Amino acid sequence: MARELERVIVRDKHVTYIVNPAFFKEDDMKAETLADYFDIEKYQLAGKVIHEYSGRGKAYLLSDMYKNRILLRHYWRGGMMFKLLKDKFFAYFDTAKRSDLEFSLLQTMRKMGLSVPKPIAARYVKKGMFITNDIILQEIPGAKTLLKILTERTLSNEEFAKIGDAVGKMMLAGIYHTDLNISNILIDGANNVWLIDFDKCFLKNINQKLYAKMVDRLARSFEKELENTPELHWSKSDFDKLEPVIRNAFLRSY
C-alpha cells in the first residue's frame, strides 16, 4: 500500500483500488474490505440499496458501512463499442483506467473550488487484455438533474445565473467536459449547482473553439429533450439567457 497525496493505492493481484483516506478508517483500507465496499450484491442482500438509477448502465445509491450515502457507478462502453465490448476497455492504453482518471480529475477540480462530487474510491480490474472500472462518489443531498427540474417547473433568474456561472467557471479552470448536457447539471436541496459525470473529461486550455463546442453540445441537449418532452418548462429563447452568463464567467480569463 502506497500513499500518494490524497490517494491511497491498494493492490490485490489483478485489482487496483484508489481510495480517498478522508472517508475510511485506517484498518478498512485493505483489499478484502474494499472488495466488499464495491460488491453490489452484498448491499442488495443487506437491504442497503436506497435507489437504482437507470441508463446505459445502472448506478446505485447505497448506505455504506459508515452509514454514509454513496453512489456506485460501473463504466460501460458507448456507441457501437458497447455492442462489441460492453464494459471492457483495452488494457494496453492508460485511458483504460477510466475510474482512476475520473477520481484524479475530481480531486483536482475540488482543489480548484469547483462544485463537483467528492470521490470516495475507484477500482479497476485487469482480466487478460481488458480492464473494467467502477467509481464511488459521495451523494449530493437533495440533488436533481436539470432535466428532472424542468419537467416540474421553470428556472428562476437566480438559477439561470448560478448554472451559467458554474459552467463558465469550469471552462475558465481549463476543464474540458466531453458530454456537457442537461442531465449532467444538478441543483441540490440548498439551491446550489453541481456538475457531474467527468468520465473521459480532461484538463485543457479552453480556447474559443472548444468553448463553442461545449456550449453547442449543451444547447443541443436542451433541444433534444424539448423534442422528446414537449411539456418541458424550457424554450429555445431560454438558452439566450443562459449562454451570456456562461460566456461572461469564461471570459474572465481573457
Describe the structure.
With 254 residues, this protein is an alpha+beta fold. Helix content is 37%, strand content 24%. The protein is built from eight helices and 14 strands. The strands form three sheets. Strands 1, 2, 3, 4, 5, 6, 7, 8 and 9 form a nine-stranded antiparallel β-sheet that branches. It has a three-stranded antiparallel β-sheet with strand order 10-12-13. The relative contact order is 0.11. The mean pLDDT is 93.
Number of continuous helical runs: 8
Taking pLDDT < 50 over at least 5 consecutive residues as the criterion, the unreliable ranges are none
Please provide the count of β strands. Answer: 14
Question: What name does CATH use for the topology of the largest domain?
Answer: Phosphorylase Kinase, domain 1
CATH class value of the largest domain: Alpha Beta
The major sheet is characterized as: 9 strands, antiparallel
- Roughly how much helix do the residues carry, as a percent range? 25-40%
Portion in beta strands? 15-25%
Quick check: average pLDDT?
Answer: 93
Oligomeric grouping of the chains: single chain
Structural class: alpha+beta
CATH architecture label name of the largest domain:
2-Layer Sandwich
Instruction: Write down the Rg.
Output: 19 Å
Task: Measure the end-to-end span.
Answer: 44 Å
The overall number of domains is: 2
| Broad shape | globular
N-to-C SSE string, H for helix and E for strand: EEEHHEEEHEHEEEHHEEEEHH
In terms of topology, how is this protein built?
Layout: E1 2-4, E2 7-12, E3 15-19, H1 31-37, H2 40-45, E4 49-53, E5 59-63, E6 69-74, H3 79-85, E7 89-90, H4 98-111, E8 119-127, E9 130-138, E10 144-145, H5 146-152, H6 157-172, E11 175-176, E12 185-187, E13 193-195, E14 202-203, H7 208-228, H8 236-250
Antiparallel strand pairs: 1-2, 2-3, 3-8, 4-5, 5-6, 6-9, 7-9, 8-9, 10-12, 11-14, 12-13
Helix pairs in contact: 6-8, 7-8
